[in-house]
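Inverse folding, one chain.
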């Protein structure tokens, strides 16, 4: 049977844990400096709305953006969806 000598090697484990925690904090600081948030938050946490629309005919990105702008949504982010059954999906 193999036993871990946790108490004997506690300094090594504390140093390893400190390095991992330090790297995590550095990653959060870098993310905050570049994106303004320590974590990359989805629409659920940022607020806003998400619409998934699929058209039977081909539609341009500017046409989709114009519809949302005319509906009063300022600066909409339009992303084309890709997949097997996702043709003309935004």
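Residues assigned per position:
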């Amino acid at each position: 049977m193999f036993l871990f000598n946790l108490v004997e090697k506690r300094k090594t484990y504390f140093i390893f844990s400190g390095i991992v925690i330090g790297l995590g904090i550095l990653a959060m600081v870098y993310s905050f400096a570049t994106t303004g948030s320590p974590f990359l938050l989805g629409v659920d946490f940022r607020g806003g709305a998400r619409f998934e629309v699929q058209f039977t005919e081909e539609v341009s990105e500017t046409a989709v953006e114009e519809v949302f702008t005319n509906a009063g949504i300022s600066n909409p982010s339009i992303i084309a969806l890709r997949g097997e059954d996702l043709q003309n999906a935004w």
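The CA atoms of residues 60 and 69 lie 14 Å apart. The mean pLDDT is 82.
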